[in-house]
Amino acid sequence: MSPIIEILSECTSTSAVLASRTDAPTGTVVAAHTQSAGRGQRGNTWESEPGANLTFSILLRPESIPAARQFELSMLVALAVARTVRSELADTPHASEVAVKWPNDIYVGNRKIAGILIENALCGPSIGHSIAGVGLNVNQTVFLSEAPNPVSLANIDGRRRQLSPLLYRLCHEILHAVENYNAADGQAAALRDEYLSLMWRRDGVHPFREPGGDIFEAAIETVLPDGRLCLSNGKAYAFKEIIAVL
After folding, report:
1. At 75, is the secondary structure helix, strand, or coil?
2. CA quadruple 245, 118, 49, 170: dihedral positive or negative?
3. pLDDT tens digits along 82-124
4. What CATH architecture applies to the domain 4-197?
5. What's the CA gap between 7 and 43, in Å, rounded?
6. Per-domain residue ranges for the chain?
7. Are 149 and 31 in contact (CB under 8 A)?
8. What is the DSSP string of 142-204?
9. Residue 118 contacts by C-beta under 8 Å, 6 or more apart in sequence?
10. N or C: which end of the chain has fewer CB within 10 A?
């Protein structure tokens, strides 16, 4: 299956546009040169210079993934984006620094190059459809927001890329990963192992903070099937319950 891509000059949010088209075929993509209200994790906005980066949403129907295991979809999408970034940087020493920051940001070293926001519509025990919104910093070289650590492909290797071919490759990678995944035949363990192998700060002890709390140091032990992050302090954290300190 190939992605079906529509590129808009401007919209509020590609995910909002796609949410009004959920009867569209699987793999439908809405991309935009400019988003006036692009959304990031934790309720933040996503900074993107008009026409410089990839901002898009893709409609998915992960029929083999039960609602109770929806974090598997998050891992699939994050790994697809990470593989694409690593491929783009394959001829640089930074390819080995590409990692997934829990739950699904993409980092190169200690700098954020991509963000992912997945919205699932559940139908009882199943996922009816999912909209995966992705922002990938490509050609932007100056960032003006208060985000602490953004970086782009151009920042890293000095190359300016054509956006359309990269958009197609990235959407195809995501769609291929989801369409070829079968949660019922034992692929979950291999998926989790790949995710853990690419986790940012997977090794060693690093600073963390609970919202409103003091900084403490801990090691990442694992990620549970429901997506909670287990640290060496004996606690398991859901999203927004723990902050990695840069």
Report:
1. helix
2. positive
3. 999 999 999 999 999 999 999 999 999 999 999 999 999 998 9
4. 2-Layer Sandwich (3.30)
5. 24
6. 4-197, 205-244
7. no
8. ---SS-S-B--HHHHH-----HHHHHHHHHHHHHHHHHT--TTTTHHHHHHHHHHHTBTT-SS
9. 73, 74, 77, 104, 130, 131, 132, 133
10. C
Give φ, ψ of 96 to 5 degrees. -75, -10
Quick one: CA torsion of 89, 90, 92, 98, rounded to 10 degrees? 60
DSSP state for residue 65 in the 8-state scheme: S
Sheet containing 105-108: give its strands across. Answer: 4-11, 28-35, 54-60, 126-136, 111-123, 105-108, 98-101
The amino acid occupying position 36 is S
134 Cβ partners below 8 Å, 6+ apart? 54, 55, 56, 57, 58, 77, 81, 114, 115, 116, 170, 174
- Return the closest-CA partner of residue 206 out of 193, 197, 215: 215
Query: For strand 28-35 and strand 4-11, is the pairing parallel, antiparallel, or unpaired?
Result: parallel
Tokens of 53: 């980066």
Maximal CA-CA distance, the chain: 48
For the record, the structure tokens of 98 come out as 């590409």
**What's 209's DSSP letter?**
E
- Verdict on whether the full-model pTM lies above 0.85: yes
8 A C-beta contact, residue 57 and residue 132: yes
The 8-class DSSP code of residue 52 comes to T
Q: pLDDT digits over 143-185, tens only? A: 988 888 999 999 999 999 999 999 999 999 999 999 999 887 7
Lowest-pLDDT range of 34-43, 44-53, 86-95, 166-175: 34-43
